[in-house]
Structures are given as structure tokens and as C-alpha cells.
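Ticket reopened. Same input as before:
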Amino acid sequence: MKVSAQEVQYIARLARLEIPEENLELFVRQFNDILGYAGMLGKLDTENVEPTAQVLPYGNVMREDVAGTPLTQEEALANAPERFRGGYLVARVMEGGGA
Amino acid sequence: MSLCNLPAHELGKKLRAKEVSSVELTKEFLNRIAEVEPKIGAFVTLCEQAALETAALVDAKIARGETIAPLAGIPGAIKDILCIKGVKTTCSSRILDNFIAPYDATVIAKLKQNDAVFIGKANMDEFAMGSTTETSYFKKTRNPWAPDCTPGGSSGGSAAGVAAGEAAWSLGSDTGGSIRQPAAFTGTVGLKPTYGRVSRYGCVAFASSLDQVGPIARDVTDCALVLNAISGHCEHDSTSYNLAAPDFTKALHPDIKGVKIGVPKEYFGEGLDKAVEEKVRGAIRHLSELGAEIVDVSLPHTEYAVATYYIIAPAEASANLARFDGVKYGYRAPGCRNLIEMTVKTRTQGFGNEVKRRIMLGTYVLSSGYYDAYYNKAMKVRTLIIEDFKKVFGKVDVLACPTAPTTALPLGAMLDPLSIYMLDVYTIPVNMAGLPGISIPCGFSGGKPVGLQLIGRALDEMSVLRAAYTYEQSAGFHKMAAPIGGASA
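Engineering reply: fixed in the latest deploy. New output:
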């Protein structure tokens, strides 16, 4: 099953990435090489095999609902690219709306 | 011999005997860094001032006659994936180029309690995605044994820094072999603990079900000392084991009589360099001569491990790296008209190609039409790989095999991602099953180190360390120092 350039661009959009046209052909080839290699798993019969998401013998880990010491507002905002009145400032969510 | 070429435990003895002070020792390492860093490129950030301040505190404790911890006052390098409060944590990515960590990773907090000296943040593949340290946004790190070659990856800076005597010990992280493979390429000792043995809190997440922090050091003793300092339950990481860790130095006695060592036939097949095979088989014979019982075993699903990994790891990475959107921290693309454009441009400009490739692979295999064909299938094959190990560990105590199929490769030699992925063919299954594994030097080929990998049952680092220590003390390769500048070994 080959993935087309159009599909790769679609996946990039889902992942909030852009693949420049000049890199697209190489990206598509590498993408197909890797997926083609992964296709070897199809040889294995896994009908009655349980999937493993993680190896630990734990289920949910619970603790008492006790508040800890969080970062201060200043610490939390210290790495913000832009900030405004104690919050994160971002580009407008919808075009054409107010500021 | 320079102090920079001694293991941490010997430096600790000198500190306690007052033959050298921690400040003198730290300056010695800073001088070595000034001398060799232009040739090696192991660091992305140096912490000279903080290192000297910690060293002075340790010296004051020694002067007051206080007992100091084993790693106190001894300079180590920290992979730049681990948060140190107030220090840049970049993951060698443009997208985190300006990120100052607001808190300490648990392993860092524990090492601070031990008064360890952090001399700098080590270079790595971007977000730990790579096996050569060539995907770093900042620089390429060179192998101290062969400067035209890669030190391996993704913890290449951590391994090269120790091999070049720029740090006495270091921390790396291992998702598919990123501690063990660079240790093999640089003639150092690298230990990936059991998944859950060491907290991942403050270690920037790549693939959460596989990532594990661990030491790279000059010898097995130092690995045990670092593991003692960093392991244990952490309330900030619900995947850390809630049980007390043993004193790993108790495994350090050169005795392997009666220990059953399995040799998996699938790790000696096509793709394994002949010279590497010869050295590893020689090391296994050596273990036999020391009293171990060697048993041929089979791990039949080994050939599927790399394919399984390159579905599961990108799937988890695509979810973990969704947080890099330019809102809360890190790089933000300038001049964007709306939020979506800001996110897309930030991620497109901020991530390198290997990271983009893996995010997209992950997005693809988790998408509704392909989830069963790829991700669910891979999780089932993961179960088969784990069952292989369970069966084999019913018969043997430790497995012995190569760490990597080749010695260090020339920089720029591998342009094709799939070929690079195959460098981790012998380390990936260990992460899949969450087992402990160590790489120790077992000889040289063409002047470049060869690594022997020893794998143990879950939570049985003691057997792994015991076998590694026994071999190391008898074989003696850990005593060889890299000829910085390119002289042959």
C-alpha cells in the first residue's frame, strides 16, 4: 500500500506541519520505505494475541487529593513567547474577529 | 594519568583523602573541555559557574569533616533532555532553543541531594530521535576514538563527553538503545535500567512507554553508583516502580560461577559486522572461562522488533510532541495571522526533518483508517517479543549479545533513515520488554570500540551488573583512554 504525495500533505496538515514542495518527493519515498518495512508485521498471525501498551503491572495509580505547590504565575509564564496581563498572548483564533 | 581519565569512584577516593579538592577537580575538567571541546562538540551548554559553586560547597563539607555522598563533588554531564532548574533545556531542537527549565527533573533533584556537580548539558539527537547525534539542531558530536566518526546516538554527547574525559560520568536516556549504542561506539559503559526503575519526571517525553533515564560512565562501578543515586519511586511519575531499590554496588564482585548466560542466535545473523561478531563471541568465551554456563537460546520475534518500534515510538512521539505549539514556551514563528498558522509555522520552522518524519508516521499509524493495521498490530507483536524474553529467562539469568551491528560509522555516512534505524536492531527489543541492559567495551576493530550487551530480567539489574563487572575486571578494556585527536587505539 503506497502513500501518495497528496496523502503525505494531508497527514502533515493533521500533524500541524508543512512539507515544502522541494522536500516532498524525498519525504514521500522515505515514508513509503518505512511503512513498507513495517508491513513485515503482516506476516505474523496475531489473531489471539493481546496488545501491550506498556510493560508495567500497574493499572491506575491513585493518590490523595491534596494540593501541592504549583509553579507561581511568574514562573509558569517565564518561558512564554508573548504574554499579556498575566496570560499567554496568542495570534487570533479566527480570522476576521476582533482583537 | 590525568584526573580526567579516572572513573568517578577513584576521584571520590581522592576527594575524601584530600589529595585534590572538588574545585580543583572541576577546574581540571573545565580545562579539558576547553582543550578538546572544539574537536569533540559534546556539549550544548556549559554550567561553569554553578559547577564551581557546588564544588566549593562540597569542599566546605569535606573541610568540616562531614561524610559526603559517593558522587559528591565529581563533575558529570547531563543529556539536554533533562530539566535542570534555571538552565537551558533544548533537546537539541530549535523549538526549545530558548527554554529555561522552571523545575528540576527528579533524577536531577536526587543528584543535587548527592552534591553531584553538573558541568554541562550534553548534545543529543533532536528530541532523542536518531542514532548518530547528527539530527541535533546545534552541532555534530565527534567520536573521541575516531573524530571522523559519529559517537552514536541519541545520547552521543553524554557518551563522547565521558570518553573524551570532559565529564567523569553522565546521564543519557534510552528509548530504543540511545544509552547503550553510543556507549558501545565510544568504549564507555552505558546502562539502561528496567523501565520504571528511574523516574522520567522532568525528562522531555519522546515515547513514554519506552523512555528510560540511565548512566553512561567509564566503568561498571560508576554505573552502579549513579544508578543508586537516581533510582527509586517518584510521586510525579506514576510509571515509576513503587518499591525500594537495592544497593547496586552489592553486585560488584567478580564472580560469575554458576550463572547461566544465554546467547540468542538471532543476534548473530545477517547484518552483523564480522569483526564485531568475533569480539563479542570472544567476550562470551571469556565469560565461560570465568565460570559462566553458556546456553544457546532463541528469541524468534527479534526480526520484527525494529518494525514494531518504528510504529509504537512515532505514535507516542506524535502525541507527546503535540505540546510544542508556540503558545506556552519555546520558539514561536513571527508574523502569523491566526492561531492555526502560528502553530503550523512554529512547528514547521522549529522541528528538524527526522522529528517531522516521526510525528507524521505517528499521526498516520494512529489515524482511524490505519490504527488496527499498524498501531494495534505493533502492540500485539510487542507482546510476542515480551513473551520470547519471558520464555528465555525461564532458562537463563542473563543474555549476552552485540550492542550494535557495527562499530562507529563515519559522520554523514548514513543518509537513509531506514539504514540508521537498523543500528538499533539489538537494543530495541530490550526497550520493548522494559528490561535492563548494559553495554560494556569488549575490544576494538580498526581502532574503534566494540560493545558487548548484557540483558537481564525486569528489575534484575544486579545480575546484569555482576556479569558486566566480572567481565570488565578480567578483560580490562575500561582502562583504555580515547586518543583524542585521532591516534589509533
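Confidence is low (pLDDT under 50) at residues 485-489 of chain B. Chain B touches chain A through 72 residues (CB under 8 Å). Please confirm and we'll close it.
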